[in-house]
Every structure is written in structure tokens, then in C-alpha cells.
Amino acid sequence: MKGKRIGRQTVQFSTPPVIRAAASVVGRKEGEGPLRDRFDSVSQDTYFGEKSWEQAESAMLRQCFARVCRKAALAPEALDYVLSGDLLNQCVGSAYAMRGVGAPYLGLYGACSTMAEAVSLAAMLIDGGCAETAAALTSSHFCSAERQYRFPLGYGGQRTPTAQWTATSYTGKTYTDVNKSDWFYNYVMELSEQGIVGGNGDGTFAPNRPTSTGEMLKLVLLSTGHKEQKPSTAHWASGYATYAYSMGFAAQNYSDYQLDNGISRLDVARFAAKALGYGASNTTSPFADVNDGYVTALYEAGVFIGTKIGDLTYFYPNSSITRAEVATIVYRIYQLSSLDQKQKIYYKDYTLDVLEGVPTNSYNKNAFVKNGSIMTYNDPSVRTRVGIDVSQYQGDVDWNAVARTDVDFVIARVGGRGYTVGAIYDDTKFDEYADGAARAGLQVGAYFFSQAVSVAEAQEEAYHVLDKLRGHEITGPVVFDWEVIGKSEARTYGIETGVLCAAANAFCKIIKDAGYDPMIYITDYAGYVKYDLSEVMDYPLWYARYDVDAPSFYYDFAMWQYSSKGSVDGIKGNVDMDIWFIK
Question: How far, in Å, CA of 41 to CA of 327, rounded?
């Protein structure tokens, strides 16, 4: 054997092995890089269809192993050895991936050297006559490694001030004022590679210059996955300002003059949190000089850390932010949005994962204007109608007088189900309201106050509604109005989410099959806690919230019940007010 060694670190094979095939399976981040065309497979799912990152790493390795075997035209069990390792304790990623292969498995632990170690040992086994074929493998998954070595990333653990972010330095571009020894070097270079940041015409980056509002808008929007925006005025950043305002991320539509001015750290935090889709956190602020829910939410996500002086941590909310600082923050945001971590919704005492695939609220909060009892939405691209919803408690109604106001439609209660015994009852005014409103030229819809506790009861309610609608001109929505009573004696108390969603779907399907347009009524509590909105996506939502100038509910909805104390000619006393977004 000594005859094969040349010096201390080199082995010369007498029968040099050859590489029959090679394969690579990577994640979305690698697929976005300059080597994307070199990979065999790029997965857009960080979990690779599994439930944990450790399982994902095993799945990724199995996929890669299957590919290389196919390319080499070898059955896995025909291999003499499989050599593989990873960064996890006991090489669990490799061990679980290879345990059913049917070939001898040798686990390796060499950290970043594992691939070179596996190839070298496999080659020695073949050259030494111990094997004819061997597979050399390794795997590395950012999230599983982070969880083991740094902090419990999967549990939403907060990054400590000393925690590191893995960054790949960009060597294709340099700035004369950004050196490798600078604390912000990796952040600036990585974002330069992604095309998110750039330098000045003179080859500098100006890391210590305050960031302008226009620069901040562009950087945060691009890092959170939003598209580039064309200018809407002569200013290069005006398109980003218009877009940010229209999405409700920015509190104002910045003028060209303001876009060139600096921006406070507080405004950056609020804008970034909204662009990420984060709600305001209800937990105690970690900073001694600011108490803002959006700042706290980004602190909890590891985006903002602050400056610790003695026993206190300071945020300096009114200070400007340098280009180096904003590059660091934007890099953290970019990493956060690319990790497929579930974003959070903070509602009262609940911390909720954002539901994947459910459309989100994209209404411009600044476009809502209320004049008396009438709400308007000032966006020419969105058609709206103003309406009311009524029950027998409104008493006698002069529908001609109502029609002369700005009201366009009415949703009348058909009836309901009692919340204790559960008997169905009729609204004594429905027939009168439906016919009177239609004769006055108003569009008419209907709702049923449900207390269903099963699919069968929801179906019973739907058929009852259809019986009541016969003979009436109903062209508006027919609504499943299931509401939380909040009393322990209520028959719906403690109903399971799956049962409620199934009941809503059953009601709406019957209504839709009969030719009407079904809709589901929700409040914040029902929408966030009782329903799983991903299970009722086939039907539009009617959202109720009275005490706000604009709706902040996270998910999309088709109608907003914005007041229970409206005043409309032809109706004595208060009436519920609604605005309907025609899509």
C-alpha cells in the first residue's frame, strides 16, 4: 500500500477509478443563482414534501441518489458500498435516507469536507480491490443545520445579537469603499449579486450615506418578492412609491421631493413589516425607546436587533438609516422571505400561521373614505356598491326613500336557527323586505343566521332558505351567516373547525347549485380562529368589523360590513352598512 503514496497527502492509484455519473438536487435559492442550469433538479418546496427539515434533507438525498443511479444505469442494491454524510448528529439525514437501499452504508462526518472525503474513500475502496462500484454522497440543508448549531429556527426562536447569517460573498463586483474587513461586506455583496442593491457611477457604494426614501422603498419591495416598478413620474422611484401606497404598505404616497429625503428607522420598520405581510406584534417591546408592534414583530423575526447599552436595548426610531445598515436589514428580510418560514398573524392572544394559498387583503387602506354613513373606495380600478343588511328589527321600511339615497343593495334576513334548542325560525319581515326593496329598484340578497353543528343541519338550513327565496327576485349574495355566540350554553360552543368548514361548504354548494351566489359571513374571530379559510376558498367572504377606518383583516374578502349604526332615509333607527367590491 505504501507504494501508492506520494508524499504526505497524495495517493496514486494503480487502477484509477472513473466517475460513471453525477447528479445534484438543490432548493429554490440555488436555483435562483448563476449555476441554476447545472443542477439536475431544483425543488421549489423547502420541505421536499416532508413535515420537518431533517426529513426534508433525507428526501433530498434520496432523490439525488435515485437520479445518479438512473444516470449510471445501476440498481441501488448492485452497489458494493454507499458512502454518505451530512452536518447533523449521527448523520441522521444520510442514515435515514440510505437505510432501505440494500447496499452496505458507511456514514461519514467531515462537515464541509464530506463530499471530498466520500469520493476519496470510494476511490480507494475500488482501487484496493474491495469494490467495483460505490456511491459517494453528501447533503446539507440550511434549516436543519441552523436548528442544530445556532438556534431552534423551526420553533420561531429569536436570533440573538451574536447570531450569524450565512452569506455567500459576491466576487464579480467590487466597490472601492467596501472592504472584506467591513462588517457589512457579505450583505452588500450578496445583494449586489441578486441585483437588489448597486453602487454609484464612480465605483463606490457610499455605505455611510443615509438611505433615501426612494432607495428604501425599492430595496424592501424587491427583497420581499415584489416586482420592479416603472416610474409613474419623472422620479426613478415614483413607481415604487405609488405601488407601496396602493398596497397599504406606506402611510402616504411620497412626492418626488420626499423620495430624495432620508427616512426614519421607525418608518422603515413599519413599511418592511407590512411588505413582508407581518401584523403588529402584541408582545412587550424589547426596546427602551420605542413601543411599536411592527418594530417588535421584526425584532421577533431577527430583522432588527438594536443597540444594547448596559441593561437596555435601543432602537433609535427617529434616526436615519445608512446604506450599510439598510443593506444588512434588507439581506435579513431577503433570507427570511426565501426560507419558506410561515409568517405570523397576531390576533388578540393568538399567534397564527399565515394560511398558504389563501388570497390576502390587497385593498388600499388610504382609499377608504366615509361621508356620514356612506363608505366609498377611491380606486378607479375597483367597482363598489353600498348596501345595508336588515332583519325584522328594522320594523317598517320605506324602500322608495332608501332607494333615493346612495344605497345600491340590501341583504335581508331569511331566518335563523336558535343557539340553544336549535329550532329553525323565519324572519317575519323577509317577504315584505325582499319584495319592497326589489320594487324600489334595489338589488336584493339574503342571509340565514346559522347555528349549525353538522353538515346535515347546514343542508337543512340551505333547503329552508331556497324554499323562502321562491317567488322573490334575488340577484345578490345568499349568505351563510354562522356566528359565535360566546356563551357556554350555546349549542355551537366548542365546534371543531373541520365541522364548521364542512357545514359552510355544504350550505354554499346547495345554494350555488340552485343558481344563486353563495357567500360566507365572518368576523375577525371566526375568520382567524374558528374557520380554516383555506378550506372554504370556493366562496367569497363577507367580513364584519365596525371600529376601524379601513379593514385590516389579513385575508381577502368581497364585502365589508363596516358599521352597525348607519343612518339611512326610510329606516327608523340604526342599520348595518356594507360596501361590496365587485370582482
Answer: 31
